[in-house]
Amino acid sequence: MKPSDFAKILERYIKPTTFPIGFKLVEDEEIIPEKARRFSDITICQAYNMARRYRWTVYFDGSTSCPIGLVAYGFSKPDELYESGELAHHAGYASSREAGMKCEKEVAKLEHGKYRGVLVFPLERDETIPDFAVVYGNPAQILRFVHAIIYDEGGALTTKILGRASCSEFLDAYLSDEPRFILPCYGDRIFGLTQDDEVAFVFPWHFAEKISRNLEATHRRGIRYPVPVTALRIRVILPESYEESLKNMRKLDQ
């Protein structure tokens, strides 16, 4: 499936307010389009948020500035602050270094040095076939992805939430080959300008066909976005004078 075709399906059934984006792990920089924008000393969450908000194709690599992201994407080896748990402890995410070490162990990581960088692009631009895709939206929109994933076989969607390093949670979906619900982290909200009401969904690209098929199937069966709430389909309580006037008008029409 072409990324642009999938983007059209999302527009039909999800209606995201920002552009769904694809991530391509880059081993050879020759595949990077000339138009790809490059920035030094920004965080990874800034890079992909530019792609989803501005419709830009963005390339990021080891010149990014977040130490957690550098380790997660294999651009750098962890230093002593990271390995000791002090990074998480000092930033306020862990009560101690020991707790911080446990936090860091849960961060999904690519093999060090395997990739030169990452290309992030709006799916509608068809830059390449992504390794995984991410869609941001409100909780009701992202709920529709859960419906699409479990529709065929039932069960439940499982996920892992770190509260930080949500860019590594994207990698967890890629490495585990399973879709994931994403609760964007504190950094994503501070640096990437992700809003309080936004959550996200990430999936390895080969799930695109299944998601497309099942968004349509569940839509046809009445599970939709926007949610067709019952409040607009039931009789409301009117002021007493309105009720009396309504009775009078109906008598006049008889």
Classification by helices and strands: alpha+beta
Portion of residues in beta strands equals 5-15%
**Major pleated sheet:** 7 strands, mixed
Q: Work out the number of β strands.
A: 7
Provide the domain count: 1
Radius of gyration: 23 Å
The level of helicity is 25-40%
Arithmetic mean of pLDDT: 96
Low-confidence stretches: none
Strand order across the biggest sheet? 2-3-4-1-5-7-6
Tell me the number of helical segments per DSSP (H or I, 4 or more residues long): 11
Identify the overall geometry.
elongated
Helix and strand succession?
Answer: HEEHEHHHHEEHHEHEHH
Distance between the termini: 59 Å
How would you sum up this structure, described in words?
With 254 residues, this protein is of the alpha+beta class. It has one domain. 39% of the residues lie in helices and 13% in strands. It is built from eleven helices and seven strands. Strands 2-3-4-1-5-7-6 form a seven-stranded mixed beta sheet. Helix 2 links the parallel strand 2 and strand 3. The protein is elongated, with a radius of gyration of 23 Å. The protein starts with a helix and ends with a helix. 39% of the residues are buried.
What distinguishing features does this structure have?
single chain; 254 residues; alpha+beta; 7-stranded mixed β-sheet
Question: What's the layout of helices and strands?
Answer:
Blueprint: H1 3-13, E1 21-26, E2 37-38, H2 44-54, E3 58-61, H3 67-72, H4 80-83, H5 86-90, H6 97-105, E4 117-122, E5 132-137, H7 139-150, H8 166-176, E6 180-182, H9 186-190, E7 199-204, H10 208-220, H11 240-252
Parallel strand pairs: 2-3
Antiparallel strand pairs: 1-4, 1-5, 3-4, 5-7, 6-7
Helix pairs in contact: 1-10, 7-10
